[in-house]
Design brief:
By secondary structure, the chain is mostly beta strands. The protein is built from four helices and 32 strands. The longest helix has 11 residues.
Length: 438
């Protein structure tokens, strides 16, 4: 049965090949943590049995993992499942990164206190589920391991040694010294994009934190919803004023408007909720068919609530534990298209796949059904998703051909302002805000 259950994931996810691997991430004899390694600092799962990695702040799954420097103790929650695991003890550590998500050259003693790594030994086995798993949970930072400075951090979870990598996740620590605000004008600089794109005009008030090298040392990152693929990173101020910086009239502050995310709810296997076509129980798991999804690229904009592409793990029965009694199910997606696209691949985008684009969420064209299909194994909960295309030559991801682009779409934009501390030699994260487009 263990082999059968794992085959479900092998079938759909495959054994992820490491495009890059850890070359040097060792505990030195002197006790310092070596940070010279060849590893992408992103939200990546390295083992197929790792599922439903959640990292969030303040006990709210929908809160990004960003915490204040002056009050960070226990503010982050890490939760994840190991399918058919045996309750092995895992380990974790974290490293400091610059504004481009590259490891800094700081020694560990400069950016963290406590141990260089610690054990993840708070785990529980699933109960009354068809697909068995072990759920791990961690509250951090804690007294055993604590960041000392603001900025970007990469959480690393591994097995017996640091070459046995399970997954990595990004989190941030902010030291609020600046106020970041933005407006979204009705008309962008390029009037041809008026109905399809959203432009941000951003102002950063530095509260007397200006130096003579403000233009050189300032960096702004903008994310649309939970996406990293289209993030604008490392933006420089357009204008520097005596008491504030402005980021205006810059092509990287213009984003596709996209569309509202589609949604479905699997929290109750005995109730066919919105957008579910069929629910059935097989020998090894539950299986759910999402209702046929038609292209929306040339349709009028329709407003409705979404959670901006995120996911929320829960079971409808309040007497059950979401962490250990929510089951997994195979979710089948179908995107109708009379013919396959010639230069693009179709993907399912959202937090259901950690905003990544790989074989697990890449769709396959079925000539018999006249559409694209994809199956994913997901834990019970509420999910948002969107169909996007990825150009096979450029790698650019867009909603233009699938969901369309509308200025009216309700997106959230996350603004991160970094300032390079030339004395201490690292990028401080000194401003953060979230702005709704409408």
């Amino acid at each position: 049965m263990v082999i059968g259950k794992l085959s479900i994931f092998a079938e759909m996810y495959g054994v992820m090949k490491k495009s890059v691997f850890l070359t040097t991430l060792l505990l030195c004899v002197a006790g310092l943590f070596a940070q010279s390694f060849d590893l992408p600092c992103g939200n990546i799962n390295y083992k197929p049995q790792v599922q439903t990695v959640l990292l969030y702040a303040d006990d709210d799954q929908l809160h990004d993992p960003i915490i204040p420097l002056e009050d960070m103790l226990g503010r982050l929650t890490l939760s994840f499942d190991i399918i058919d695991g045996e309750g092995e003890v895992l380990n974790y550590t974290f490293i400091h990164c610059d504004h481009e998500w590259q490891p800094t050259e700081l020694q560990r003693i400069q950016y963290a206190s406590g141990f260089e790594s610690d054990r993840l030994d708070d785990y529980a086995f699933s109960r009354n589920t068809l697909i068995e798993y072990v759920n791990y949970e961690l509250k951090f930072p804690n007294e055993d391991m604590m960041p000392l400075v603001s900025g970007n951090y990469l959480l690393i979870v591994y097995g017996d040694d640091l070459n046995d990598l399970y997954f990595t996740r990004r989190f941030m620590v902010v030291d609020e010294k600046a106020h970041v605000g933005a407006t979204i004008p009705r008309y962008p600089d390029d009037l041809s994009l008026t109905d399809t794109h959203q432009q941000l005009d951003i102002r950063v008030n530095l509260n007397n934190y200006l130096t003579g090298n403000t233009q050189q040392f300032s960096y702004l990152t903008i994310r649309q919803n939970g996406r990293w693929d289209n993030a604008a990173e490392g933006l420089k101020p357009t204008y520097v004023y005596p008491d504030y910086l402005s980021f205006e009239h810059h092509p990287q502050t213009v984003f596709e408007g996209t569309n509202q995310y589609r949604r479905f709810n699997t929290s109750n296997f005995y109730f066919q909720s919105e957008n579910l076509a069929h629910i059935r129980q097989n020998d090894d798991c539950y299986e759910i068919d999402i209702a046929t999804c038609e292209p929306r690229a040339r349709k009028a904009y329709v407003t409705y609530e979404d959670i901006h592409g995120e996911k929320y793990i829960y079971v409808e029965n309040e007497n059950l534990d979401n962490a250990t009694e929510a089951d997994y199910c195979r979710v089948n997606f179908f995107y109708k298209s009379e013919t396959p696209l010639t230069h693009e691949d179709v993907y399912i985008m959202g937090a259901l796949n950690d905003w990544c684009f790989n074989e697990s969420n890449k769709m396959t064209y079925d000539y018999r059904l006249h559409g694209y299909t994809c199956s994913m194994v997901l834990k019970q909960g509420y999910y948002n998703f969107m169909f996007v295309t990825r150009d096979r030559t450029t790698g650019v991801i867009t909603t233009e051909l699938t969901a369309g682009n509308h200025w009216e779409t309700d997106n959230v934009y996350k603004l991160y302002f970094y300032y390079f501390n030339s004395i201490k030699g690292y990028d401080e994260l000194i401003g953060y805000s979230v702005v709704n487009s409408h």
